[in-house]
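Q: What would this chain look like folded?
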Amino acid sequence: MGDKVQNPYRLLMNKDIYAILDGDTKFEEYQFKDTLDSVNISMPYLSGPDLCGLSSLFGLPVTYTWGGVNQSRWQYLDDLFEHCIKAERCSDLLSYIFDKQQFSKMLSGHEATVVDEAYNQFIQVILGKINGILYFGGNELTSANGQFIIRKIGAKVEVKAPKIKNIDREYIRSISIRAMEDVDNRNFDSAITKSRTLLEEVFCYVIEKKNDIPSTSGNINDLYKQVKDLYNMHGDANTDKRINTLLSGLEKIVSSISEMRNKDSDAHGVGAKRIAIDEHHARLFVNAAIAMADFILSVEIKSSSKQINT
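A: My prediction, written as structure tokens:
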């Protein structure tokens, strides 16, 4: 009961706010200064599969059934906010969906300065509309230093350092068990979703352990590049060629899981792009993701140990 009353992000769990966040609600027209084209100000539209993908990205694997019965889009958001409140990741969720990259389809085709100006105006209007809903409760949603915070209107913003979710081998093992249960139940889409989500979580974890901010591009390869840069994992002439070959193979694993996630998973599989996979393929993907996650965690543990002993 305490969390339901005290957590301020629960104020966003409102159908009118969900309709803004998922792109259903459109506001006044915005005219671009370079082309004089106009577009209605709104959040990018999030379809059911998009919302499943977003949920999975934040550690809540959800299956979208093509041609079957699915939840309403607001229900996906409701479940996701509930999950993020428990995981203390609501600010991360809002930062992700409000990130400029998410508006790329709506704002592309214009000069860089025009895009920046349009994006800033979009965010200002959208936050203003959300705060119009929160106003009579004396609260507002505001952004500071990349974090989204619910505060009493006019109150001083106190930005807290984000908590790093603890990820260890037991956590990896628990995800492995759940993913393999999906495979045994022939729910291959969900197994692949869990595989990618695990890698993203491990990548973000080791990036944050270096006091850096994970990429919000939504591209798992960008996260892996950050990990390689931060942990100096690039192959060189002084490294045994067999190790370099192994690292190259791991990179292909990441790319393959990312590609399979985009084409075959529950979140993004569409029409002819959706390729049927067999049980042995699903098992391979799960095992590859587990091996990769364990390796990256080992790299971080070794790096932390060196720092302690220095």
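Residues 228 and 234 are 6 Å apart (CA to CA).
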